[in-house]
Specification:
Layout (H helix, E strand, L loop, with lengths): L6 H17 L13 E5 L5 E6 L3 E7 L2 E7 L3 H4 L5 E7 L2 H4 L4 H13 L2 E10 L4 E9 L4 E10 L4 E10 H16 L1 E3 L1
Antiparallel strand pairs: 1-2, 2-10, 3-4, 4-5, 5-9, 6-7, 7-8, 8-9
């Protein structure tokens, strides 16, 4: 079994993203979470994501970047994590970087592909933006990271979503990655 983002989930993601802008990202207007999960709505405006029961949430902000972590381990107690999802929302992209957010997303995917063995790479296209999807087994460690990189030119934002786990724990945790990265609301 491999973690993948199907075109059906992408269409659902696109609808949820569009609706979040008209409903203020209010997760109460969307479907109930799958059993064993609950919706978590970021207090920093990063978005709404499925959180497995018993997992931990941490939010951080630095300059134009906001970050959200949903992890199996408690980052605050352990000082880091092995298994979990992180989202980086880069706002006002053009004030810090040159080029369009969509161009950066393609560049970032290419750069991340050079960090190890590429296990999956795809681009899912819609009218407003593309999702650059990439899974890499890092050369420097036994970590596998599944990335979704989205550059939104219309809002001048870049989102980098990552689900990661050690290779030895990947099979037992990929079901969480499928759920978390399969249904989310940005912004």
């Amino acid at each position: 079994m491999t973690l993948h983002i199907s075109r059906e989930y992408y269409v659902l993601f696109t609808v949820l993203t569009a609706l979040s802008s008209t409903h203020g990202g209010d997760i109460s207007t969307f479907s109930a979470p799958p059993e064993g999960y609950e919706w978590f709505e970021s207090t920093d405006g990063v978005g709404s994501f499925l959180k497995p029961d018993g997992w931990f949430v941490t939010e951080e902000s630095s300059g134009n970047t906001k970050a959200l972590f949903i992890t199996r381990e408690n980052i605050e107690a352990d000082g880091g994590y092995l298994t979990g999802m992180s989202v980086n929302q880069i706002n006002d992209f053009s004030k810090t970087y040159s080029g369009e957010p969509s161009q950066y997303a393609v560049f970032a995917a290419a750069e991340l592909a050079s960090t190890g063995e590429v296990l999956l790479q795809d681009v899912v296209t819609c009218d407003a933006y593309d999702m650059n999807i990439l899974r890499v087994k890092l050369s420097s460690s036994d970590i596998i990271i599944h990335y979704i990189i989205i550059g939104m030119d219309s809002t001048d934002q870049v989102y980098i979503l990552m689900f990661e786990a050690p290779e030895s724990l990947w099979e037992q945790n990929e079901q969480y990655g499928e759920q978390i990265l399969g249904l989310f609301i940005l912004g």
